[in-house]
Amino acid sequence: MKSTMQFIFAVTFVILACGVVDAKPKIRPPKNCTIEPQDGPCRALHSRYFFNMTSRQCEHFYYGGCLGNRNRFMKKERCEKECKVSMVKRMQPVGTKRQPT
């Protein structure tokens, strides 16, 4: 009976450990960052940045000055701060310090 319980415990541990290692959290940017940018109907040429979901980068575009949507940032740094997220967080062993990235 004791060896059976140890076997079940070991198998359960292995299954759970494999599940944790293979788990890749899907972290999505905020909704405003996932919509296609719109330059709007006006004709101004304001230099702006938008978050491109395909490239996962903040990219330049020209905003017309009116309407459009919220996937529009005056500075690339602001776009990156709000939209750019790590898609997969690396796991590290317990008791180790995380290295700065």
Task: Describe the protein in words.
The chain has about 100 residues and is an alpha+beta fold. The protein has a single domain, classed as Pancreatic trypsin inhibitor Kunitz domain (Factor Xa Inhibitor, Irregular), CATH 4.10.410.10. About 35% of the residues lie in helices and about 15% in strands. It contains three helices and two strands. Strands 1-2 form a two-stranded antiparallel sheet. A hairpin with a 4-residue loop joins strand 1 and strand 2. The longest helix is centred in the first third of the chain and has 21 residues. The chain is rod-shaped and about 80 Å long. About 5% of the residues have low confidence. It comes from Ixodes ricinus. This is Putative salivary kunitz domain protein. It is found in: Secreted. Pfam families: Kunitz_BPTI (PF00014). One of its GO terms (cellular component) is extracellular space.
Jot down its keywords:
single chain; 101 residues; alpha+beta; Factor Xa Inhibitor; 3 helices; 2 strands; 33% helix
Radius of gyration: 23 Å
CATH topology: Factor Xa Inhibitor
Element pattern in H and E: HHEEH
Q: How far apart are the first and last residues' alpha carbons, in Å?
A: 49 Å
Helix-residue proportion: 25-40%
Total strand segments: 2
Query: Considering the protein shown, what is the CATH homologous superfamily?
Result: Pancreatic trypsin inhibitor Kunitz domain
Give the uncertain stretches in residue-range form.
Answer: 86-92
Biggest beta sheet attributes: 2 strands, antiparallel
Task: Tell me, briefly, the overall form.
Answer: rod-shaped
Total number of distinct structural domains: 1
Number of helices: 3
The SS-based structural class is alpha+beta
CATH architecture: Irregular
What's the CATH C level?
Few Secondary Structures
Query: Mean of the pLDDT scores?
Result: 81
Strand order of the largest sheet: 1-2
Q: Estimate the strand proportion.
A: 5-15%
Protein name: Putative salivary kunitz domain protein
Keywords: Blood coagulation cascade inhibiting toxin, Disulfide bond, Hemostasis impairing toxin, Protease inhibitor, Secreted, Serine protease inhibitor, Signal, Toxin
Subcellular location: Secreted
GO molecular function: serine-type endopeptidase inhibitor activity
